[in-house]
Design goal:
The protein folds into two domains: 1-137 and 321-390, Rossmann fold; 141-294, RecF/RecN/SMC, N-terminal domain (Glutathione S-transferase Yfyf (Class Pi), Chain A, domain 2, Up-down Bundle). 38% of the residues lie in helices and 22% in strands. The protein is built from eleven helices and 15 strands. It has helices at residues 3-6, 45-53, 66-69, 144-156, 162-181, 187-220, 239-243, 248-261, 263-269, 297-319, 336-349, and strands spanning 11-20, 23-29, 34-38, 78-86, 89-97, 109-112, 115-117, 129-132, 232-237, 280-285, 290-291, 324-327, 353-357, 371-376, 379-382. It has a six-stranded antiparallel β-sheet with strand order 2-1-4-5-6-7. It has a six-stranded mixed β-sheet with strand order 8-12-13-3-14-15, with helices on both faces. A three-stranded antiparallel β-sheet has the order 9-10-11. A hairpin with a 2-residue loop joins strand 1 (11-20) and strand 2 (23-29). The two termini are 35 Å apart.
Length: 390
């Protein structure tokens, strides 16, 4: 069953950009559920899907500072809005920054149907967004911190409060580090901040573990060793995650006690050496039963695609909204068989999907209902596909 059969499937019907990246102005109507953006490198394909990625908590798929998103030559601000055909009717979402009269830039502003909302987390009522970019290609061989950020992005698409929870935990850790730098830190302050760290840390570990367990079920699927995208075995490893086996209350107390006992060691290291900030997402290539980092580059890419597809299904099941799926240059490193399988899987997913690729031939296997645009020099025009030879 596709996620669309079980969930509402919001669809972006119009994208409006002002002074965003390479776009002075853009007003693009969108009719397709599968949308491909093609054009030369640097034409602005990724810029467009980055704009769409701003309709979720965080800094978007490039993790860039907001000021960097403003068009060079503009006044320093930018605006992005979308018309969304959602389960409760049409809704307009907008975000951006602007140059203030004193010359400074405003904080990020978010609006729903013209009314200001407190943060981009409010967009989660109307849209969820997942993505895959080339920057994630080395996720299995990179640092554990990269995999934690990847995992937190997966969790954030399910639980819009996860980002603020992680931010509060990191602030508390920094506060503890500053206290431990003092020659004689106030023990009462340390007790208080360690209680906060333990409470937040156990909650983060619980939410991450639950998401990984659910994702692992979907990523394993039917465990078909001949599937074009290999099934994955996912687990999360960490001290606090292991403590959860005793229950949340016991884990919180054990983590708090561990922080207290580790004060001399952590003071010497300049940081806390245990906690969910040191956990790691472990992935195995199911059919070969090998760690993902030992698989070939092509196998790792196919494994990652399979995880992102499973994540889209998980988001739909958890939120009731089939997510917007953004795939940057996803087809370039797939053979023709896997490209066709990818497009078939995306078509069955039920979500609206935006894909980028420099070569129009990469999208030759897309169904006729898909919409293809040619991107160039801040402009986007429909791409007319050649009729198949008779």
């Amino acid at each position: 069953m596709s996620v669309g059969e079980a969930s509402a499937a919001p669809r972006v019907a119009r994208i409006i950009l002002s002074d965003f990246r390479s776009y002075p102005n853009l007003d693009l109507p969108v009719a397709g559920r599968l949308v491909a953006l093609t054009g030369e490198n640097g034409a602005g394909k990724t810029n467009l899907i980055e704009a769409l990625s701003l309709f979720t908590a965080g800094r978007g798929l490039r993790r860039a500072d907001l000021a960097e998103m403003a068009r060079a030559g503009g006044n320093g601000g930018f605006a992005v809005s979308i018309a969304l055909d959602g389960p409760s009717g049409d809704v307009r979402l907008g975000t951006g920054i602007e140059r203030l009269p004193d010359g400074t830039l405003s904080p990020r502003r978010c609006r729903i149907d013209g009314a200001a909302v407190g943060s981009p987390a409010a967009f989660a009522e109307h849209i969820r967004v997942v993505w895959l970019t080339p920057a994630l290609d080395a996720i299995f061989t990179g640092a554990a911190g990269d995999r934690r950020r990847f995992l937190d992005r997966l969790v954030l698409a399910i639980d819009a409060r996860h980002g603020s929870r992680v931010s509060a935990y990191e602030r508390a850790l920094r506060g503890r580090n500053r206290l431990l730098e003092e020659p004689q830190p106030d023990r009462a302050w340390l007790d208080g901040i360690e209680t906060e760290i333990a409470t937040l840390g156990v909650e983060i570990a619980r939410v991450r573990s639950g998401a990984v367990e659910r994702l692992a079920v979907l990523a394993a699927g039917a465990r078909d060793d001949d599937a074009p995208f290999p099934w994955a075995d996912l687990t999360i490893e960490g001290t606090v995650e292991a403590m959860l086996a005793e229950g949340e209350a016991a884990a919180t107390e054990r983590f708090r006690a561990a922080l207290r006992d580790a004060r001399p060691r952590d003071a010497a290291a300049g940081r806390a050496l245990i906690g969910p900030h040191t956990s790691d997402l472990k992935v195995r290539h199911g059919p070969k039963d090998v760690a993902a980092e030992r698989a070939s580059t092509g196998e790792q890419k196919a494994l990652l695609v399979g995880i992102v597809l499973a994540h889209a299904r998980l988001v739909a099941a958890a939120s009731g909204l089939a997510p917007l799926v953004l795939l940057d240059e996803v087809a370039a490193h797939l053979d023709r068989r896997r490209r066709a399988a990818l497009f078939e899987a995306l078509d069955a997913l039920g979500s609206q999907v935006f894909m980028t690729g420099a070569d129009p031939a990469l999208f030759g296997e897309l169904p006729s209902s898909a919409e293809i645009f040619m991107v160039g020099a801040g402009r986007i025009e429909p791409f007319v596909r050649e009729a198949p030879a008779s």
